[in-house]
Amino acid sequence: MTYFKGSSADVPATNFPVPDLINRRRVLNFTTGVDQTCYFSGFLDTTYGGAGLTVSVFSSAAAGGDVVWQVAFERLNAAITSDNFAASQTATVTLGAINTRVAANLIFTNVQIAGLLAGEEYRIYLMREGTNASDTLGVSASLASVVVRET
C-alpha cells in the first residue's frame, strides 16, 4: 500500500489545484467548473502479485454534490521527457455531509496500469473533471489523500 498526502503532489504549470489548510491539515482545493490536475510519484510494492490496483481518492467539500475524479498510471521505465499514461478511469462520488471525507475507489487491471511490475516506479495523474456534467459540486473539492493498494 502507498499513501500520498495531497500536499505531496506535483502540479503542472497551469490548471492546478490550490494548496489550503483545513483544521491545520494540508489539502489541495480543486476549483468547481474547471478541469484541474496534479501528479503523485511512487514505487509499486515489491510484493505486488499482478492482480491490479485500487486507487482511493479521499476528498471533502464545504457543501454537498457529486465530484468526478479521473486517474491514470504511467510506468516510468522509458524516457521521462514526455507523458506516457495508460488509459484513465473515472469515478463519481457524492460528497454529502459537509467537510466529511469520502473515498472514490477506482479499480485498475494490470493492463490499465501500463503493465507495472513489482518494485517499479510510477506516476499517477489525478484530475477533477470539473467541466463534466456529472460533476455537480458547486464548490471546491478538497483532496486530503490518495491511497494505492493491490486489489
Beta-strand percentage range: over 45%
Question: What's the name of the CATH homologous superfamily?
Answer: Galactose-binding domain-like
CATH topology: Jelly Rolls
N- to C-terminal distance: 10 Å
Quickly count the helices. 0
Question: Could you list the spans in which at least 5 consecutive residues all have pLDDT below 50?
Answer: none
Radius of gyration: 15 Å
- Roughly what percent helix? under 10%
Largest sheet: 6 strands, antiparallel
Structural class: mainly beta
In total, the number of strands is 10
Topology record:
Blueprint: E1 2-5, E2 18-22, E3 25-30, E4 35-43, E5 53-61, E6 65-75, E7 89-95, E8 102-108, E9 121-129, E10 141-150
Antiparallel strand pairs: 1-10, 2-3, 3-10, 4-9, 5-8, 5-10, 6-7, 6-9
